[in-house]
């Protein structure tokens, strides 16, 4: 059993389920925290992109987290994971530019003071979600590559398979069985 056969088993599919679940949880928490900021009169454009990405991720991974459990799953979510990984890294970069290095004090909530813990939580959950999305992309690429390589090998083997004697195409006249023609 080689490393390529590993991707046919249950372990990578359950790892993808767990990873998709963690992305779902991260996006749920991010939607909650960012919505808290939007509710308290922070409706600037700096919150639009992260909120939209978190909401889209929430709905996509609500369904996608159960797909790897299916036995016939072979990494079909690779393009979506690839796109979502880059959207999340962009949101992570934007969040780091806004909140890292003590800049969290620039976003105080009226009557509640600065909420640096919330901005640090935003950064932490963007990082957690990005790491799991990157893991998803790598695992799905390996699963898809193994599936593609295995299907090509099967097609190649069927095409060049040697026929056993007596099993070749019949050259007997119509209406005569091949055994009677011999």
From TrEMBL:
UniProt KW Transmembrane helix keyword: yes
Region of interest called Disordered, as start-end residue ranges on this chain: 158-182
Keywords assigned by UniProt, alphabetized: Membrane, Transmembrane, Transmembrane helix
Transmembrane in keyword set: yes
Listed Low complexity bias regions: 164-182
Transmembrane feature ranges: 14-34, 46-70, 76-96, 117-139
Protein name in the entry: MARVEL domain-containing protein
Species for this entry: Humicola insolens
Top-level taxonomy: Eukaryota, Fungi, Dikarya, Ascomycota, Pezizomycotina
